[in-house]
């Protein structure tokens, strides 16, 4: 019974895929049918996901479960087999992904203005892309090997590109502001850098093991082999090299430093996309990759005494990203921009947790973060939606009064244009508040608190530096969350648009309520046992369920730390309460300071941000400016990588054709190119040819011509006789041929009409006729 | 077991769809897409025949890979031609391009 139910898992990605196929081919003209189909398919996936989830949870003994494999792909002698693979990590993802996807799909109906006259002109296409994305994410989770993982991962990358650039025709008056089209390309190319490393890692793994199936690569013998073999003849363990290469994929997909630049710009896409792909699910795919390959990451500690440098790198990049992105988030005015940087920062949290060997804590934060970040994005989308409609309304109003109203571009995302929206949009405000509290880790009743607390606790035992960095990041997180809530919802409206912003439709606010419910309650399944008072009472279900998978890994990490002298025997047992206290201080302190700065005296229209004003006063204005401009990473990459590529292309161009130069020819300035290398060779060959041809020409005139003239004279004599014959007989024949050709050419001329497609049509018909004739002759 | 004929039928259908696209579309890019469909139909044939007649060798897959490479090159050249066309004549509707009219 259990296995039958778990076998159903392969159907989960199939339904969204069918929807993706049907919508563009069949139903795209009917918007209602299209979105019903897509939402229906994800509802089916959700239902199956729930079945698998509850089956797995009630019978954890059968995990990890691998179904019977089917023959999938063969290349030469190699036969790839495909099966469903379900372990606790898959199970919890199957709980989270379809649920969040479904909420966001429902929300999109309202966000894309279904049923109003402002409905998006590519409405059905949008839903088709969403369905394809769900296929990618779900397919990545359920199957049993890294090759399908990579394929579905790339499908998601494509969807991300398509959806960021969904409004590709949009242009802004400010030429420096990135357009959706450019943002899509940027996201695609930057993540490809990471994917390249991922693929190299896969190649290295396959070359060594000859398989990419989880069962094969994570078996203890394989792991031991990988951990004890050196990479390319060096001492560096192969397992660490592969883990680092795979981690390259994570850096790209989860927007870790230094490939973080694409994610803030990805906010150019429609808000449901930002919520779905660039906050809740796809970016966590990168973290999920580390979760999935965790045995590989810890293999070195498990089997050797080699210093686990790769884990230090992972933890370091994660912690640095966490603090770096949360500093940047403080200076963003775009309501989605703040959330984008907070996403990067939270992903850094998860990555550093995994790098410290805290598998359970990382996975836990992955799940809770998905819920509250989806919630925050969706409610900020609702705010933007309200601002757009409010602006529209106020604008119409203004038009009645004065006809010559100067139209200025209005940014509905700018928090400086908002304020006082709590009264206008209460059903958006409350979920946003709850999501914000969860993000900042408000104690006890939000999910974010429990998962963050767990990471901090693990970090405290593993590495004090990472612990303090993460605590700082947590405080900053609470601060910018308070700033965002105060600027958006409190005080008085700062523009006409905010004054007239209407509440969003129920199809947008109901998903908010449901996500808010999970953003609060989900933390309660993972209350650590050592937590004062309630810890021993409520069981830590999450750790009990997910923990055993990686029992070996966690022990190995502890073992390695003991070896490295980080952890004495006694310290492990006595759980220090310092991380808890620091976590509480960071969350509450950050929120309180944020409220002091932004909530007590709400910003007035046109007023400078208090933090900016304060920093200017102590001559740190340049720092704030740098923060607002994302520490100039975009400019740096533009100057090095992008311009470098263009420079290289120019060099090759010059190699071929030479440098372009301006010259004056007959009073006009024209651009002339001197010969470059390749062009010079061609030119030289041409000159040699000319010399030869001149010699041949001389020979021709002096020798051949003389002979020809001689022959000509002889011919002239004979020709007189032939002339008569010629004029009468031959001419008659030639004229006859000419007349026939002329007569037939006139109708045939019409065929030669210059249209390539007609030629091809004639060719195709001829081929068909020939084939038909062939058959008639044979049979 | 799926019969070889089914694959051939699929390939034939895909080929016809591509041919129809090439013959009927005005837009040069759409025509290029039709050509890609036809190439892919050929690929299906290659791989299907390989699978059903010589599964031990990799020839079918190797040929399919060559076709991919050629298709990529063809797309690059084709798109470059289309861009050149757009720059000189400001149109990519093939029915407006009949310089070789007799």
Descriptive labels:
heterodimer, A: 779 residues, mainly alpha, two-stranded antiparallel sheet, 6 strands, 72% helix, B: 102 residues, 0% strand, elongated
Q: Which pair has the most extensive contact?
A: A-B, 15 and 18 residues
Instruction: Determine the oligomeric state from the structure.
Output: heterodimer
The Cα radius of gyration of chain B reads 17 Å
Relative helix content of chain A: over 70%
- Rounded mean pLDDT of chain B is 89
Query: What's the tally of helices of chain A?
Result: 32
Q: Structural class of the helices, strands and pairings of chain A?
A: mainly alpha
Number of helices of chain B: 3
Supply Rg of chain A. 35 Å
- Indicate the low-confidence ranges of chain A by residue numbers: 402-406, 552-556, 559-574
What does this structure look like?
The complex is a heterodimer of chains A (779) and B (102). Chain A contains 32 helices and 6 strands. Chain A has 779 residues and is mainly α. A two-stranded antiparallel sheet of chain A has the order 1-4. A two-stranded antiparallel ribbon of chain A has the order 2-3. In chain A, a hairpin with a 2-residue loop joins strand 5 (660-665) and strand 6. In chain A, helix 9 (220-228) crosses helix 14, helix 13 (282-292) packs parallel to helix 16 and helix 14 (294-303) packs across helix 25 (551-564). The longest helix of chain A is centred in the last third of the chain and has 72 residues, at 677-748. Chain A is elongated and about 130 Å long. In chain B, helix 1 (4-24) runs antiparallel to helix 2 (28-53) and helix 2 (28-53) runs antiparallel to helix 3. Helix content of chain B is 76%, strand content 0%. Chain B has 102 residues and is mainly alpha-helical. The termini of chain B are far apart.
């Amino acid at each position: 019974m259990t296995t039958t139910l778990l076998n159903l898992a392969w159907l989960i990605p199939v339904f969204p895929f069918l929807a993706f196929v049907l919508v563009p081919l069949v139903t795209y003209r009917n918007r209602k049918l299209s979105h019903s189909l897509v939402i229906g398919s994800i509802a089916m996936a959700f239902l199956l996901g729930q079945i698998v989830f509850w089956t797995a949870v009630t019978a954890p003994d059968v995990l990890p479960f691998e179904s019977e494999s089917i023959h999938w792909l063969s290349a030469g002698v190699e036969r790839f087999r495909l099966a469903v693979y379900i372990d606790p990590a898959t199970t919890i993802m199957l709980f989270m992904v379809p649920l969040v996807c479904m909420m966001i799909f429902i929300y999109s109906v309202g966000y894309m203005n279904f049923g109003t006259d402002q409905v998006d002109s590519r409405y059905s296409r949008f839903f088709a892309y969403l369905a394809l994305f769900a296929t990618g994410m779900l397919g990545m989770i359920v199957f049993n090997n890294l090759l399908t993982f990579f394929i579905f991962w790339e499908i998601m990358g494509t969807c991300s590109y398509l959806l960021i650039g969904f409004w590709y025709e949009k242009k802004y008056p400010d030429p420096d502001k990135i357009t959706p089209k450019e943002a899509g390309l940027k996201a695609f190319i930057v993540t490809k850098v990471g994917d390249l490393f991922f693929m190299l890692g896969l190649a290295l793994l396959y070359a060594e093991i000859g398989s990419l199936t989880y069962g094969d690569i994570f078996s203890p013998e394989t792991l031991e082999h990988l951990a004890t073999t050196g990479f390319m003849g060096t001492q560096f363990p192969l397992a660490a090299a592969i883990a680092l290469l795979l981690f390259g994929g994570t850096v790209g997909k989860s927007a870790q430093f230094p490939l973080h630049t694409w994610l803030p710009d990805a906010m150019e896409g429609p808000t449901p996309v930002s919520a779905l792909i660039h906050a809740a699910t796809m970016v966590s795919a990168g973290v999920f990759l580390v979760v999935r390959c965790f045995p590989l990451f810890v293999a070195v500690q498990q089997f050797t005494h080699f210093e686990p440098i790769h884990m230090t790198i992972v933890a370091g990049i994660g912690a640095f990203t966490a603090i770096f992105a949360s500093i940047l988030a403080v200076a963003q005015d775009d309501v989605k921009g703040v959330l984008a940087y907070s996403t990067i920062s939270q992903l850094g949290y998860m990555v550093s947790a995994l790098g410290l060997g805290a598998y359970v804590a990382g996975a836990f934060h992955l799940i809770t973060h998905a819920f509250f970040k989806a919630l925050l994005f969706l409610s900020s989308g609702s705010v933007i939606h309200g601002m757009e409609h409010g602006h529209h309304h106020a604008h119409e109003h203004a038009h009645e009064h004065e006809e010559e109203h100067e139209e200025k571009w209005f940014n509905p995302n700018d928090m400086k244009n908002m304020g006082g929206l709590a009264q206008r949009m209460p059903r958006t405000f409350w979920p946003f508040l709850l999501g914000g509290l969860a993000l900042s880790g408000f104690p006890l009743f939000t999910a974010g608190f429990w998962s963050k607390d767990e990471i901090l606790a693990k970090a405290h035992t593993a590495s004090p530096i990472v612990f303090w960095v993460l605590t700082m990041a947590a405080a900053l997180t609470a601060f910018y969350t308070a700033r965002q809530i105060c600027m958006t919802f409190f005080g008085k409206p700062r523009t006409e648009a905010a004054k007239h912003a209407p509440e969003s439709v129920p199809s947008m606010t109901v998903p908010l309520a449901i996500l808010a419910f999970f953003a609060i309650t989900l933390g309660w399944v993972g209350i650590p046992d050592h937590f004062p008072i309630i810890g021993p009472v409520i069981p830590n279900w999450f750790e009990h369920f997910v923990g055993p998978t990686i029992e070996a890994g966690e022990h190995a990490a502890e073992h390695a730390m003991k070896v490295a002298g980080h952890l004495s025997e006694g310290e492990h047992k006595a759980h220090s309460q310092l991380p808890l206290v620091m976590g509480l201080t960071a969350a509450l302190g950050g929120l309180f300071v944020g409220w002091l700065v932004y909530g007590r005296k709400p910003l007035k229209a046109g007023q400078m941000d208090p933090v900016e004003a304060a920093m200017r006063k102590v001559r740190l204005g340049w720092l704030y400016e740098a923060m607002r401009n994302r520490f100039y990473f975009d400019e740096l990459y533009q100057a090095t990588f992008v311009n470098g590529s263009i420079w290289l292309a120019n060099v090759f161009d010059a190699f071929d054709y030479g440098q372009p130069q301006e010259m004056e020819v007959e009073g006009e300035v024209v651009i002339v190119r001197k010969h470059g290398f390749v062009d010079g060779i061609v030119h030289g060959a041409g000159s040699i040819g000319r010399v030869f041809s001149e010699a041949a020409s001389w020979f021709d005139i002096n020798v051949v011509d003389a002979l020809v003239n001689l022959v000509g004279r002889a011919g002239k004599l004979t020709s007189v006789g032939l002339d008569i014959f010629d004029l009468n007989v031959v001419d008659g024949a030639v004229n006859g041929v000419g007349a026939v050709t002329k007569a037939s050419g006139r109708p045939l001329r019409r065929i030669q009409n210059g249209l390539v497609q007609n030629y091809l049509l004639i060719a195709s018909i001829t081929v068909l006729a020939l084939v038909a004739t062939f058959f008639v002759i044979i049979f | 077991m799926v019969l070889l004929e089914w694959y051939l039928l699929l390939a034939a259908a895909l080929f016809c769809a591509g041919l129809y696209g090439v013959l009927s579309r005005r837009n040069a890019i759409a025509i290029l897409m039709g050509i890609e469909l036809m190439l892919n139909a050929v690929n299906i044939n290659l791989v299907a025949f390989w699978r059903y007649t010589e599964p031990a060798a990799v020839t079918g897959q190797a040929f399919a890979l060559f076709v991919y490479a050629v298709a990529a090159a063809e797309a690059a050249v084709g798109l470059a031609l289309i861009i050149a066309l757009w720059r000189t004549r400001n149109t990519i509707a093939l029915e407006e391009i009949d310089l070789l009219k007799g």
